[in-house]
Amino acid sequence: MKILVTVTEAATVDTVFEIDGLDIDDRYLSTDLNEWDAYALEEAVQLAEAEGGEVVTVTIGSDGVEETIRQALAKGADRAIRVWDERLAALSVLDPLTKAAVLEAVVADEQPDLVFTGVQSADDSFGATGVVLASRLDWAWGTIVNDLQLDSTVAHVTRELEGNLEELTDIQRPAVLTIQTGINEPRFASLRDITRAQQADIAVESFADLRFDADALVSSIERTDLYEPDTDGEATIFEGSPDETAAELAAVVEETGVTR
Amino acid sequence: MTVLAVAEHRRGELRPVSLELLSAGRELADATDGDLHAAVVSGDVESHADRLNREGVDTIHAVADGEEFNHDVYTQAVTQLAETVEPTVLLAPDTANGLDYAPAVAERLGAPLLTDALDLSYDERLTVTRERYEGKVETTLDIDAPQAVVTLRPGAWPRADGTGDAEITAFDAVIDESLVRSDVTGYQEIGGEVDVAAADVLVAVGRGIESEDNLDIIRDLADALDATIAASRPVIDNGWLPADRQVGQSGKTVSPELYVAVGISGTVQHVSGVRAETFVAINDDPNAPIFEVADYGVVDDLFEVVPALTDRLTRS
């Protein structure tokens, strides 16, 4: 069994930051393996360990994302593919339809039995690439999967809905499954795994390698503004030493009457 | 222009977000003196259509295929309806189910997809407001396309009210059963011994607590307040507390007299589940979105403030 896992490098913003045009200045961004993708990868690695098979990651990104890809290799991926073309850098927004178009070409090349993605990325949070990819592939799909049992033709999944409710769904294979956090416990990589991952080859695929038609890259979404939101809240912020702020908070608590 | 809003229902109940879609849809349609269409797929479409018949809705399409939500049926039905109605903007809820079919509809229509929209406007082209970086910034996106699919954040628009005089019409979708590759076999509720929704006082803990061992300071604070301990998602995912303690979109909605959020950043997935009379937040990040919803806050190290607060409350 071959499982293809999409791996994204997600950015988080420092406590203090500045906006530079239509993005946040790189100095204030920290990057890491997208949290949801870490769970998707772990689920694939556990399946491969139990049943045999290969786990291949695919990442869309410039060479700057290779450290993140090596994190995925250290956490058990057998191989990694990075797809990049400078035409991607020119896009205002790397939206789910564009990403899925590129990933479809990788699936065509790799012919996996299953594709796992994280439910969403922590930075842009579109939460849609997996379903678009499945639709392009004409495959079945399951989203927000927090439990998975496979048999030869069907994926039995539990989907997380709102309000402590879960849906039990049987999905025909092959399928794209978007994996929710909490489905497993992603492993920490050992020093040996990290060393091995540092030495591993990352296959770099161009659009030409993938026979990908770059005409599909015409995105109709343009970012026009980026700003810190107006806060609706009028929170009273207490300042001072921990003892002083604790005293203020204690007074608030006492005022509510809940401690009587 | 024409706007098409696709309602959501579950286990026989129309979900409130459906009425929010109508408000957003009407605002958008008004920008060009256009029409608002609503649609309901599966289940008791007649009664759902009646509930969708609010002021400002022009036409309601009832698609009577299937009993409960199935994304393969929805994808086919909504795509066919959109090909018939030809909306400029198709609206769906940014929910577990909305995100389970709307991306496929967008792909099939060849239309751009914008999810989790917080605001919409239309001036010759559609503009969508979204968050980035877990709510620390907002961005506006202009859409240069004749058609777009947009999912709307629940709670971002008011619910449509009033009584409408929409035309309610049946839409006969042609569902190819060979393309129905998923089968919903049932539902299960996450139960547990503790009902955080029933608690008057909650101390809620988030990722900032860093490890399970550190939960002791939260237990001490909860004891001092005679409070129930709740949690945001990362704490549950790490297995530090059981799932019945989770507050938020995928957990419980709570409405306590006092809610003390400790080390919780305040993603919309969490705060959408909190309706507290008094909301207190302790977090060392001054830009954490939790301070947008809190009544009182302290920007400091929780490992210093929480024990000090417990000490104060115990002594008083």
From TrEMBL, chain A:
SUPFAM superfamilies: Adenine nucleotide alpha hydrolases-like. InterPro entries: ETF_a/b_N, ETF_b, ETF_beta_N, Rossmann-like_a/b/a_fold. It holds the Pfam family ETF. The keyword Electron transport applies. GO terms for molecular function: electron transfer activity. Transmembrane segments: none annotated. Keywords: Electron transport, Transport. Signal peptide: none annotated. Residues 21-214 form the Electron transfer flavoprotein alpha/beta-subunit N-terminal domain. Gene3D superfamilies: HUPs. Belongs to the ETF beta-subunit/FixA family. This is Electron transfer flavoprotein, beta subunit. It comes from Halapricum desulfuricans. The gene is fixA.
Automatic annotation (TrEMBL), chain B:
InterPro entries: DHS-like_NAD/FAD-binding_dom, ETF_a/b_N, ETF_a/FixB, ETF_alpha_N, ETF_asu_C, Rossmann-like_a/b/a_fold. It holds the Pfam family ETF. The gene is fixB. GO terms for biological process: fatty acid beta-oxidation using acyl-CoA dehydrogenase. This is Electron transfer flavoprotein, alpha subunit. Residues 3-184 form the Electron transfer flavoprotein alpha/beta-subunit N-terminal domain. GO terms for molecular function: electron transfer activity; flavin adenine dinucleotide binding. It comes from Halapricum desulfuricans. Belongs to the ETF alpha-subunit/FixB family. It comes from the Archaea.
